[in-house]
Write a structure and sequence with these properties.
CATH class: Alpha Beta
Helix content: 10-25%
Radius of gyration: 14 Å
Number of helices: 4
Strand content: 25-35%
Shape: globular
Distance between the termini: 31 Å
Largest sheet: 7 strands, mixed
Order of helices and strands: HHEEEEHEHEE
CATH superfamily: Vaccinia Virus protein VP39
CATH architecture: 3-Layer(aba) Sandwich
Number of domains: 1
CATH topology: Rossmann fold
Length: 171
């Protein structure tokens, strides 16, 4: 996890502490390779989802598939630096929407097109690579109509730029 993402998670937590402290939280792309949102958010009702088994993973999933017992269960879905590995972004969106309760919040960070670095992840049976980028405008348009924009901005430094997005499920 980049230092800028750690700062953004801490900022998000401070700003929404009352909500987050009482929220059920799902992390999508939860494999902890170098830090996780789980390190900065309450863990009382926190479940990590990923397409691989490993540190930070509570539920292994297949792309686009959320087990029925987890659908519509979470007040908050967080995803840090995972979305840009998805060759089929519509499946990632489906997972987010499936996990969230009505009016639940989504906090996501992803590499922006301005980020020229390519990142590595664990080897996975699907062979996903760091190959997908969206602009802020494209991300907001992509998440609609199921997710309403609350905040969307750039964060990072000259070498690494992320999009930080906060949205709310519309139904």
């Amino acid at each position: 996890m980049h230092p800028s993402i750690r700062r953004e998670l801490k900022r998000f937590y401070r700003k929404h502490k009352d909500f987050i402290d009482n929220a059920s939280i799902a992390e999508l792309g939860a494999l902890n390779m170098n830090g996780s949102p789980r390190d900065y958010l309450p863990q009382a009702d926190y479940v990590g989802f990923d397409i691989v088994n490993g540190k930070g993973i509570d539920v292994k999933i297949e792309p686009g598939v959320i087990p029925p017992e987890h659908q519509g269960k979470y007040d908050l879905v967080v995803s840090s630096s995972s979305f840009h590995y998805c060759p089929q972004p519509e499946l990632y969106k489906k997972q987010i929407v499936d996990l969230l309760k009505p009016h639940g919040l989504l906090w996501i960070s992803m590499c922006s097109p301005q980020c020229k670095r390519h990142h590595s992840t664990s080897k996975n049976e699907y062979g996903f690579k760091d190959c997908f980028r969206m602009t802020r405008k494209e991300l907001r348009r992509f998440l609609r109509p199921e997710i309403k924009d609350l905040e969307c901005r750039l964060a990072g430094d000259g070498h690494h730029q992320d999009i930080i997005y906060l949205g709310q499920k519309t139904c």
